[in-house]
Each structure stands twice: as structure tokens, then as C-alpha cells.
Amino acid sequence: MVHPGNLSSVPFDIHALICSALEPYDILLLRRVCKSLADSTSHRSIWRAALERVCYQNDVYFPSFPVSDMSRIELEYASMAPKRWAGLFSASQERTLPAARSRRWTTFADGSREGLIVHKIYLIPGGRFLVTLIKDELAIWDLGHAFKSLLPSPLVAQPIAVTKTSSTYFVCHPSPNEKDFRIVGYRAMWGDNGYAYDYNIFEVNPSCPSPAIRNIASIHIPNNYALDFTSICKNRLVMIHLNTIKIWNFVDDEWATWHTSRAPIQILMTDRTIVLIDLEGLSIWDIPKMSPDAQKLALEPESSLIRVARTTLIFPEKYRHDPDLESCSGICDWYTGSPQPLLFDFLREEAFHFTVHRFRVNLSDFERTVSAELVSQTSIERLELQSWEPYRVCGDKLVILSSTPTAIECHLQSSSTLGEQINRSLIVCDADEVGEREFSFCPVAGRLCWVSRDIMEIKIVDCLTSPLVNVDRDL
Q: What is the pTM for the complete model shown?
């Protein structure tokens, strides 16, 4: 029997149910109420469930965490990571974040790096698995999860999976089965007949006993125009060439293509809808009926068919054809088709800063109606030779990473008008010519990786403290 006012008599299942509706930080606050709640909130199962919710909310690759091997305190640290990362921006009095710990992984100790080119690296959300494309090798590295008390630091690191490829660029996206993730690699070519592109879809489960990078689909696509950008959502890859839209369903081997009346500068996607952003407004398109035999159709001459969008929204006059528009940016392909809001930014170039106008696209009534609203307007300091990375998600904040020849800088900005409003930039890593190296950052792990200029090392910096680890600045 439950006695009024006596929490110790409340079954643990009820405590667990209460905790399932709370954020990790609130569970820690609940622990302070009384001994009964302190005991129940110290159960490992509470924090495993909390970590699962955090991974879902932030679209983190859940196999990044070997939960069966993690202690309760490690689960707590991992669950609190988004809150802790935002807290660094609120609490830090310095311009540069100190590294909690850092490591160097020697990758080519035998001098075999001669002639290597680092095309790209990408840290999978979760911070454990790093994807690298160096010369003609696509590789997966297991760095260990960021909240482990002791992390591996081998004398000579080896990737857990590697394959040869002709691709020179890639993007990553979670697989529908949630165990694997996909890597979309492509290579551009130019010949007498114009442009052509080779696409390869790879899939890998890096947490299985013997990981292998499998090529699950390939296609060769000639085109009259250069590729502007791509987007992947579930089993569909969308390619934008000026005002030509091409869709490839690489699982069902289906194809569709059409032309628009205006050239897009950015794309947002859901399972059923494509949102194209241009200099005048938004165009909303339903995913069309697709035809079989994608490779055959991709080789046929391009149709001149211009399809009319289902819905079109025109921007207010001050946003149309803005001559000072630097770029139209958004979150990276990993999050396409996820529960994250459909957001895009107009970065407007000013004398000493960028003004960021953030818009949210709202689809409702089974995506039949649409609206767009300005959710924030902020400024980011303009630095010399600055380059921008596609955004990452961290709680209700978006993380913008940029680089200069001397530093990697992180900007944290709220993604809505709700919750704690943060708009601040901090230097994550300050080192000579770091901006010329390939780098990647995962905010929910507080982990930054880059490949050294001589391609001898992968350097790993963890900004968030881990259990039983003192501050160690060895980089």
C-alpha cells in the first residue's frame, strides 16, 4: 500500500514513469528532493532510457554508445551532454574553450602518406565514429565514445572498415533500420559532352563485430549543368542542377526528373515533400510518381518539362534578390527527414559581421498547407577567409562551425523563440593554420576532430569533461 506523503512506498515503476517525462537535468534536480528519489534516480535503467530520449531528440546515432558496457555515471554524462554544451556558452568567461582532454592518433607511421589528399572527414552525431575520405580510401574509425573514463590512444591507429572508391566527396545519413548509416559518395567529371557524375551509396554498421563498408547502389548521371547541391532523405537522393531537379530512389531503382521556373539556392525535405528555396520565395513540391530502371532513365536526354509547384510563397520585399546575401544555409544532410524543424538561414554580409535571418517552414494538415516565419535575427562576427560548415543540432540550439586560417570557431544559436536564448561564438580550437585542415565537430559529444596538415595524425579534442578525468591539455 502507498502511504500518503511517503515516497519510499511508491513503486520504482512509478518513479521510472515520472522520469520518462523529464529532461536529464530535471532528473538530477529530482534526486535532491529526498532519499527515495535519490535512490530511484540512481538506477542505471533510468539513465539508459534518458540517453535513448536524448539520442532521439538530437538525431544521434544510438550505436555510438555501447550502453550495455557503460556505467551509470557514464550514461548520466552522455545524457547531459547537450545541456552541458549549451552551459559552456552561458558560463564561459573566456573567448576560447579549454580542452578537457585531447589525443593524437598516428595514422601513417610508415610514411605511406606520400601524395595523399584529404577530401573530407565527418564525425557521425554521437561523436564515436569518424568517416574519412583520404585519396581513394573511404574509412571508418572508432574513436571511443566521448564519455568513457579511459579512451583508446593506440600507437598506430587503424580504421575498423575501409574500401576503395573513386568518390571525391561524401555526405552521411542514418539508415532506416537505425543500426547502419549510409555514405553518399560522388565524383564529378567533365568531358566533350558536358558534365557527368558518378554516385555510390555505401552502408555500414560500425558497431558489429566485423564492420564492412558495403556498396548498395551506384549510378552514372550525365548533365547539361554543374551540380549545385544534393540532399538525401531515407531512400531518395535529390540532385539540383540549376533549375533541373533529379530524384533517385536507390533502393527501389526508380527515377524522376523535372524543371522549375526558378533556380533554387537551398533545399529542405521530408518523406513526402520537397521545399525549394530561391531568391524570391519558397516552392513546395510533392514527391512525384517515380519510374523504374533509374540508370536507363538517367542516361536519356533531359526533358524540357516544367512542372508547377503545388504551393509557392513569396518572401517580403526586403528579402527578395538581396545583393548582400552571402549564402542560404541549413542543417546538414544527417538530419534530413528527422523530427528536427525545417529551418534555413539567410546570411547577409555587412561591414564587420554577418546578419543571420533564420526562417522556419511549417508544414501541417498532412503537409498540405505551408507557412514560413522569421524566428530569429542575430549577428555573427565576420572574420577573414571564413568558411562555414552545415549546421549541427544540439538540444533546441543549432551549432554553426566556421574556420579561419588560425582558429575553428563555434556559434551557438537558438532554433526557436522558445526556451533559453543563446547567441554567442567561442573558439573551440586556436592553432596555426588549423582552418586549412579538414575538420568535423559533434556538439552533443563536445568533440572536435581534424586531420593534421601532414596527414600523419587524427587529432581529437574533447571539450566536455568525463567521469574521473582531470583537465589535461596536451595538445
A: 0.90
Query: What is the SS3 string spanning the chain?
Result: CCCCCCHHHCCHHHHHHHHCCCCHHHHHHHHCCCHHHHHHCCCHHHHHHHHHHHHHHHCCCHHHCCHHHCCHHHHHHHHCHHHHHHHHHHHCCCCECCCCEEEEEECCCCCCCCCCCEEEEEECCCCCEEEEEECCEEEEEECCCCCCCCCCCCCCCCCCEEEECCCCEEEEEECCCCCCEEEEEEEEEEECCEEEEEEEEEEECCCCCCCCCEEEEEEEEEECCCCCEEEEECCEEEEEECCEEEEEECCCCEEEEEECCCCCCEEEECCCEEEEECCCEEEEEECCCCEECHHHHHHCCCCCCECCCCEEEECCHHHCCCCCEEEEECECHHHCCCCCCEEEEEEEECCCEEEEEEEEEEEECCCCEEEEEEEEEEEEECCCCCEECCEEEECCEEEEEEECCCEEEEEEEECCCCCCCCEEEEEEEECCCHHHCCEEEECCCCEEEEECCCCCEEEEEECCCCCCCCCCCCC
| Sheet with 439-442, edge to edge strand ranges | 101-106, 457-462, 447-451, 439-442
Q: What is the pLDDT of residues 179-190, one digit of tens each?
A: 999 999 999 998
pLDDT digits over 309-357, tens only? 888 999 888 888 777 777 888 889 999 988 888 988 888 877 777 788 8
Per-residue pLDDT of 350-374, as tens digits, reads 777 778 888 889 887 565 677 888 8
Q: Which residues contact 455 (CB under 8 A, 6 or more apart)?
A: 107, 108, 113, 116, 118, 134
- Dig out the grid coordinates for 368 from the structure: 498540405
User: What residues have CB less than 8 Å from 323, skipping those under 6 apart?
Assistant: none
Task: Give the percent of the chain with pLDDT over 70.
Answer: 84
